[in-house]
Write a structure and sequence with these properties.
heterodimer; A: 368 residues; alpha/beta; Rossmann fold; 2 domains; 6-stranded mixed sheet; 5-stranded parallel sheet; 16 helices; globular; B: 345 residues; alpha+beta; 60s Ribosomal Protein L30, Chain: A; Phosphoribosyl-aminoimidazole Synthetase, Chain A, domain 2; 5-stranded mixed sheet
């Protein structure tokens, strides 16, 4: 496959590993922000092939993982209403709320459907005027433009039976939260390539300068990751801290303008609670007042509520890169994809699920 | 017998889709609920039951139900699947499939001409597989109480004397031969269901495998184990076999054939071809010195023309499946919990 195979080439991987080895003289602790990148790293065992000076820690960029428990509970409550058809992307269906998951809600008689695009939910609302169609708008800046477009189209068509349960989060405020924390260990970032495809990387230039950390906009294939690591390590070895765009085949500095415009039209920046981390100011998106009638929480008069996480689960520390999944006492027993205590064990992009799936008990290197 | 519902099942107080997905959740349902209730032993679990017969030959019996949407897809339909799936389960215990039953649950409103097309394909499929449909049953349920049509088939065959094809027969240093490329059936059905179009048209791999496996036996190849790859794909089949045999299985990623159209479709949906369903592929476990001959014999058949060696059985614990990646690292090829779900981004 063009644009994929060349980024998985064993020969190129060896070449870039050698290049990293040549420039490394001191320890580097880098964070890959996106769960998709974590998945690639663990799936291909890239962390086991890097020189021992380079430590990769896994960031909070998994939309499923950071969606707060109370939001899942709201989804479950909506899905169980007889007049509602609840639409979601597939991997939200197994995330446990405080009482069951969306699969259970469906088994209990709720009409829960997996869609591949929010526009499918809009089409469903037009087909079924007798029902309320609610779409679970989860994700980072990547899924925000299509979700904004769905609401925009719904308004244009005058659809009174379509709404969004919004749980959108933004990457730069999370990076800033990590950097400003007294516990911070991260010395360089592999920024999430697809988020930057939409948003560009101007916002990261200020962060890199203020906190003096290199930030490399990085793709998702093995070679992307290694090139991202190389660009981070080389800068740190040379005492520089700029934003570098490794993922130039997809990302330009100003991002995707039409996508940003539709987001700007429909959404505004709001505070959001992140699962396992807490509330971060200006870290999420909510519907603007002009589009507030499409807000499911308002339409169904849902109340604010906070729910405590199971105490054994270290997902907060894991999402902030303070702990590796296998350092959690609950990892693999009792917490597994069959009995997840926290979302990082559920999502295909969650760090705990990646370690469980590809390594189970093994620490990196043990499986060599 | 303990009549209380076993505890591990109570995480889901009702049946969820994952209970039929071919992963761990389904395995638990079968072992902890059905086998517990029926008093059958998991040790004997295989694609079909092998029962006492006469003159050294034994009987093989199996059953399978078919629920699929859409009913028709490139390369087959629910009827062809209902014949081949059951024939293949018999073939996987070393049996020569002979007779099938066919039970139909029809939903009120199903077009008769659709049913005719399905019945005709079942006859064609039975002829190709060399079996006869000898008995059947029909029930009709009210509109919206079925998905058009559900089919159950049961199959009976003969296991000739001397064939001991079972996970227990797997030996360390056995070589694993895969009969063809992965994922065509699952991705064809998914593409049709979701109306996704790809450059190259995908076609299901569904096919009867008994003639192919029969060739292996006739050539005198000492087959230790066979397993067809259905729900859960190659990863699920190998994990079941690793567990049942108590052996570690190693697979070389670079040796496993996946067509470019399946790879593209999987990339698009965020799925892993190792976990995607097949309906005309199997793995064959043979001694290492028989590997070349096995591949040659398989390739001489239509169904096995893509056969190749993909890995081996190791004399070490734990009994898991280890994948040697194309980049040279190793990782687990884990048993899926439930069916794969398309990802958010």
């Amino acid at each position: 496959m063009k644009y994929l195979d060349e980024y998985r080439s064993p020969e190129q991987v060896r070449k870039w590993l050698a290049a990293i080895r040549r420039v490394v003289t001191k320890p580097h602790t880098l964070m890959e922000v996106c769960g998709g990148q974590t998945h690639t790293i663990v799936k291909y065992g890239l962390d086991t092939m890097l020189p021992p000076e380079v430590t990769l820690i896994h960031g909070p960029g998994c939309p499923v993982c950071v969606t707060p428990l109370e939001m899942i509970d709201r989804a479950l409550a909506l899905a169980r209403r007889p007049e509602v058809i609840f639409c979601s992307f597939g991997d939200m269906l197994r995330v446990p709320g405080s009482q069951g998951d969306l699969f259970s809600a469906r088994a209990d008689g709720g009409d829960v459907r997996v869609v591949y695009s929010p526009m499918d939910a809009v089409a469903l609302a037009m087909e079924r005027p007798d029902k309320e169609v609610v779409f679970f708008a989860v994700g980072f800046e990547t899924t925000a433009p299509p979700n904004a477009m769905a609401v925009y189209q719904a308004k244009k068509k005058g659809l009174g039976n379509f709404s969004l349960l919004v749980s959108h989060v933004l990457v730069p405020p999370a990076i800033e939260m990590l950097l400003s924390s007294p516990d911070n260990r991260v010395q360089g970032f592999l920024a999430a390539g697809h988020v930057c495809t939409v948003m560009g990387y101007e916002a990261y230039e200020d962060l890199a300068k203020r906190y003096q950390v290199p930030i490399v906009v990085t793709g998702f294939e093995p070679l992307d990751i290694l090139q991202g690591v190389y660009a981070c390590v080389k800068q740190r070895e040379e005492g520089r801290y700029a934003v570098v765009n490794q993922y130039a085949r997809s990302v330009i500095r100003q991002g995707n303008r039409p996508a940003r415009e539709i987001m700007e039209e429909v959404f505004e920046v709001v505070p959001r609670r992140w699962r396992g981390i807490g509330t971060i100011d200006r870290s999420g998106l909510g519907l603007r007042p002009d589009y507030a009638v499409f807000d499911a929480e308002r339409r169904f008069a849902m109340s604010e509520q906070f729910v405590e996480e199971p105490s054994q689960c270290l997902s907060g520390a894991i999402l902030q890169g303070l702990k590796k999944p296998y350092e959690c006492p609950a990892f693999s027993r009792p917490c597994s994809p069959a009995h997840p205590l926290g979302a990082p064990m559920v999502s295909s992009e969650g760090a705990c699920a990646a370690y469980y799936r590809y390594r189970q008990h093994a620490e990196p290197g043990e499986s060599k | 017998m303990n009549k209380a519902c076993p505890l591990p099942l109570r995480q889901y107080p009702r049946v969820v889709m994952g209970h039929g997905g071919g992963g761990r959740l389904m395995k638990r349902l079968i072992e902890d609920l059905f086998m517990a209730a029926f008093g059958t032993s998991a040790k004997e679990a295989h694609d079909a039951a092998v029962l006492p017969g006469t003159d050294g030959d034994r009987l093989a019996m199996t059953t399978d139900s078919y629920v699929i949407h859409p009913l028709f897809f490139p390369g087959g339909n629910i009827g062809t699947l209902a014949v081949y799936g059951t024939v293949n389960d018999l073939a996987m215990v070393g049996a020569r499939p002979l007779w099938l039953s066919a039970g139909f649950i029809l939903e009120e409103g199903l077009e008769i001409v659709t049913l005719w097309d399905i019945a005709v394909s079942m006859k064609e499929a039975a002829d190709r597989a060399g079996v006869k449909i000898v008995t059947g049953d029909t029930k009709v349920v009210e509109k919206s109480k079925g998905d058009g049509i559900f089919i159950n088939t049961a199959g009976v065959g003969i296991v000739p004397e001397g064939r001991e094809v079972h996970p227990r027969a797997i030996q360390p240093s056995d070589v694993i031969v895969l009969s063809g490329d992965l994922g065509r059936h699952g991705m064809t059905v998914m593409a049709k269901r979701e109306q996704l179009a790809f450059d190259q048209e995908l076609k299901s791999d569904c096919a009867p495998l008994a003639a192919m496996t029969e060739r292996l036996f006739r050539e005198g190849i000492p087959v230790h184990c066979l397993r067809d790859l259905t729900r859960g794909g190659l990863a699920c089949a190998l994990n079941e076999l690793a567990e049942a045999s108590g052996r570690q299985i190693q697979v070389r990623e670079a040796s496993v054939p996946v067509s470019s159209s399946v790879r593209s479709a999987c990339e698009l949906l965020g799925l892993d071809p190792f976990y995607v369903a097949n309906e005309g592929r199997c793995v064959v476990f043979v001694p290492a010195d028989e590997a070349d001959r096995t591949v040659r014999v398989l390739r001489a058949t239509g169904e096995g023309r893509g056969a190749c060696v993909i890995g081996s059985v190791e004399d070490r614990t734990p009994s898991v499946v280890v994948l040697k990646t194309a980049l040279g690292s190793s990782r687990l090829l884990d048993m899926p919990e439930i069916e794969q779900l398309p990802r958010i981004c």
